[in-house]
Amino acid sequence: MELKPGLSALVTGGASGIGKALSLALGKNGVFVTIVDLFEDRGEEVALLVEKQNKAFHPDRNEPSSLFIKCDVTSRTFPRCYPLTQTEFPRLLEDIQCFSAQEWMAAAFDKHLETFGGLDICINSAGISSHVPFQKDKTDGKDSWRRVIDVNFLAVVDSTHLAIQAMRSQKKTGVIINLASSAGLYPMQIDPIYSGSKGGVVMFTRSLASLKSEGIRINTLCPEFVHTEMGSKVNSKLVSLLGGYIPMEMVVNGAFELIRDSSKAGSCLWVTNRRGLEYWPSDAETKKFKVKSLNSKGRYSYKLPSKIEKPDAFDKIVVHTFDHNFRRATKIVRERLRSPIKSDHILVKILYAGVNASDVNFSSGRYFKDKNPPLDAGFEGVGVVVEVGDLVDHLRVGAPVALMLFGCYAEFMMVPSKHVMPVPRPDPEVLAMLTSGLTASIALETAGKMVSGEIVLVTAAAGGTGQFAVQLAKLAGNKVVATCGGEKKAALLKSLGVDRVIDYRKEDIKSALRKEFPEGVNIIYESVGGDMFHTCVNALAIYGRLIVIGMVSQYQGEHGWKPLNYSGLCEKILAKSQTVAGFFLLHYAKLWKEHLDRLFDLYSSGKLKVAVDPKKFLGISSVADAVEYLHSGESLGKVVVCIDPSFTQPSAKL
Fold first, then answer.
1. 485 — phi, psi (to 5°)?
2. Which of 42, 178, 380, 442, CA to CA, is 20 to 30 A from 642?
3. Burial class (CB in 10 A: 0-12, 13-18, 19+), 544
């Protein structure tokens, strides 16, 4: 999320310490801030400072640009009402309001929404430490360690819940940051209750990572000791051993990084003098406990085949000569199944294979400098395991799997087990998430640096990958513009939530973009090339990012892929600090699993739709027909070939 004037933030514990510093830092960026705290004098002072800072950004604003709201987040019960006479009691109720903690917080959020019209950022910063060592506390803890849990953990849960509700009700994207502590990452013997409460905040926050699919990113910030009123009470020798007090500026920078970086959700940013800003746990540690979500969850069941026949030989498609014409370049060959199977390999029966625009680049030899035909064709497939090697213990016969390897235009494939991804079902919809879905997901995040609140243009948007790009951009909280050719494609895109569909068969794309988006668009997901590329470069806004994932209009022709001269490109992107980035999926293989899990989570929860072209291509002999159909411009969604028409399963419910 870009920090810009006009956003609004609610900060608990905003009257002092880290909360105060973050409130003032937000005010310096023109953000409207509500400070929620128990201490009225301090809170009013901070609100006044934020108001002064906001004047530079909103000089003509008559309404307040900052608020202070008094709130006691530890009030778990109604205050005691002493016995009064019948005449005195009603009068007292008119003068005194009795709130529980949840009601205090709910009232604060309501006032914020009423004043600023929405909620973009929520920072839960309120925190206290124990004044009596837990081991020596002989009370019931009501005024010591139970209060610490109330403030440090339960209040964070309450506020996070209210922030999520507010963002959902406004249908807005948002960022929530929960202040924890390094004491929540490793034990702090001097205050085990403080350490435990902050550890609870860390795990609570990390468990909410999936809300990113709704555009709500929740992260936690874990600084070591900061020179605040609470931090100054810590033993100076311990602080010295940890490298001294952390500058408040470093904590603010960490919080702003979590706000700005759209890839961070469920992340824990550890802030120390010794190591700087570091995300915890490391990728290596995460792998120790992360499970394969595709193998363990999904909306539908899959019935394993009772028996799969293993033939002596099978058909596959190979490129026998390099040619831009896929039909001329390829042929079907018969190959014997090798036996016995290698110990670390599996044999897969391919049920569906995906068709891609770049199949013609493969058949023309553009992807190879040192290889000659014959080459196995096809990039992606889904199927079932027929046989496993002796050393393979994570897959069983009949298990549904996906492959992203050369050679998927085949009835069977013998592959190393490490290259196989378990999936819930071997369906065309799952197949569409592979090359097409992964390209959109990874490209928008890495090359596009996609955040919320921007304008995203997707060309050829009704195709296999375009359908994913428009939905992911929309889910991230952006305005989406899409180009296509034909009423059916336009209807599909509108059903996927696209804000503006430009059908080039009915209107001029250049004119529409120039008229409706005079300041340009922020991100362009481009796969057409040729004249469309020129149009996209000219449509980019300042700081705009153009992602080139292909150039389908240049792939075929009498002489194959003909490079075009884009004169003046350097001058254009320099003039507006723009970025033109190429994206080739093979270079991002390490991200496939993570993004495929993410796509399936969205799909299984109903937030992502998958369109598969209704035209049927049955059997391996229909592959060339399918490739030509895709390049005809008539396809709608993902084009798929059913390699084995005899295999049937109940269709997935979209």
1. -130, 105
2. 442
3. buried
Place of tokens 């509700």: 165
Mean pLDDT confidence for 287-300 = 48
**Is 408 found in the same domain as 546?**
no
Confidence class of residue 311 from pLDDT cuts 50, 70 and 90? Answer: confident
Task: Tell me the C-alpha to C-alpha distance, in Å, between residue 436 and each of 356, 423, 506, 560, 619.
Answer: 8, 16, 27, 23, 22
Quote the crossing angle between the two packed helices 248-260 and 17-27, to the nearest 10°.
60
**φ/ψ bin of 417: left (φ > 0), alpha (ψ from -120 to 50), beta (otherwise):** alpha
Closest by Cα among 48, 269, 104, 111 to 175: 269
133 membership: H or E segment, kind and range = none
Q: Which of 474, 471, 531 has the alpha carbon at shortest distance from 504?
A: 531
Supply the pTM of this predicted model.
0.56
Nearest alpha carbon to residue 158 among 121, 204, 118, 116: 204
Q: What is the pLDDT of residue 98?
A: 53
Number of domains comprising the chain: 3
3-state helix, strand, coil in the chain (%, to 5): 35, 20, 40
Instruction: Report whether the peptide linkage leading into residue 518 is cis, meaning its omega lies within 30 degrees of zero.
Output: no
Residue 416 and residue 329 share a domain: yes
CA separation (Å) from 404 to 115, 273, 530? 52, 43, 28
Q: Residue 469's domain spans which residues?
A: 448-582
Give residue-wise pLDDT tens across range 53-95: 999 898 888 889 999 999 876 654 444 333 434 444 444 444 4
Q: Give yes or no: residues 133 and 219 share one domain.
A: yes
CB 619 within 8 A of CB 314: no
- Angstrom distance (rounded) from CA 477 to CA 471: 10
Which residues, at least 6 apart from 623, have a Cβ–Cβ distance to it below 8 Å?
317, 330, 353, 355, 377, 378, 409, 617, 641
User: Rounded CA gap, 144 and 7, in Å?
Assistant: 37
pLDDT at 566 over 90: no
Neighbours of 317 (CB within 10 A): 26
